[in-house]
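ugh ok fine here u go
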Amino acid sequence: MRGTDKRSGELFSYVGVEQRVRADHPLRAIRGVVNEALEVLSGEFAALYSGMGRPSIPPEMLLRAMLLQ
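structure:
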């Protein structure tokens, strides 16, 4: 079963990620492009996962993490 791609930016911090990263940082532009591309691919990812079983880590989240490395 496919997990949901919800983002919790302030789970372990009192200062949000948006406040920590400056507005003109290059990763902000990359994030926008990546999010748009992953939104288009979301249906394709959903077709690959079963409706039964334990929820997985969303593939969008895994791909974002790989890009940051």
